[in-house]
Design brief:
Elements lengths: L4 E5 L6 H12 L5 E3 L19 H9 L4 E4 L3 H14 L5 E5 L6 H12 L4 E6 L6 H13 L7 E5 L18 H11 L3 E3 L1 H5 L2 H10 L7 E5 L17 H12 L2
Helix pairs in contact: 2-3, 3-4, 4-5, 5-6
This protein binds phosphoenolpyruvate and manganese (II) ion.
The site of phosphoenolpyruvate (PEP) has 10 residues, from loops.
Length: about 250
Amino acid sequence: MKKQIIIAGPCAAESAEQILTSITEAKKRKVNFMRMCLWKPRTKPGFDGLGEKGINFLIQAAKAGINPATEVLVPEHASIVMETLFRAVPDAQLLLWIGSRNQNHYVQREIAKVVAKDKRVTLMVKNQPWASEDHWEGIVKHVLDGGISKERVILCHRGFVPSDANPHNYKNVPDFEMTRKIKKNTGLPMLLDPSHIGGSARNVLQISENARKEDFDGLIIEVHPNPKTALTDAEQQLTWTQFDEVIRGFYNP
Ligand code: PEP
Ligand code: MN
C-alpha cells in the first residue's frame, strides 16, 4: 500500500497560541491530521489534558482546513467531540484513537460503537504496552466487534515496554517483525509512532531512519512549536524543521 497517512502535531493541546502556530505550520505541509490530544493518560498525576474545553481548538483547526485528531479514553469523550465538532464544521474529517494504556476490551468496543455511527470519523488503535501478538490481534477483534467497518480502522505501532535489552535507550522497543504479521493477518493499514518509541528527539530521528525500508502506511509524530516548553513529552517532540527531515526520508527510503 502507498505511504499516505501523516499525523503530526503536539502531544497535547495546551494553549491558543500553541494551536494557532501548529495550524499555520501544518497548513504549509502535507499533513492529513493534526494531533492535539485533549485527554492524556499520565503515569503520575499532572497535566492530563484540557478535556472538553479544548474541543474549540479542534473546531478551529477544522475551520482552517486541518483535520483534527485526539486520543479518547472513554466512549463519552468520542461522543462529545463528534457531536460538538460536526455541529460546528459538518464537512470535517476526524481521527480518534484508543491509546496503548487503554486495555479494557469493554471500553475499546464501546468507543468503536460510537465511532461506527459516523463515517466522517476514522479510528486508530495503538498496540498494548506489552509485547504479545495474540493480545494485539485481540484488541482489533474487540474493536471490530463494535460494528465499525474495517475501512475506517487503522493500526499504530508505538513499541513495547523494554525488557532487559535496550541498548539505544528507547522509551519503547519496536518489533517490526510483529507489525508485519499483524498488518498481514488483519489486513489493516499500519502506522508507525516513532515519538513514543524514541522518547527523545534524537531517538525519534534515528528510529524514523531505521524504519524507512519497512512497509508502514504512515506516521504519527509529535511536533511542537517550542518543544522545550511542552507540558507533556517535551523531550521527544520535534520541531517542524526536524519533522520535514523525517518526512523526506520516509518518502525517499
Ligand atoms: C500519545 O500518543 O500521546 C500516547 C499517550 O501514546 P501511547 O498511548 O502510545 O502511550
Ligand atoms: Mn505523547
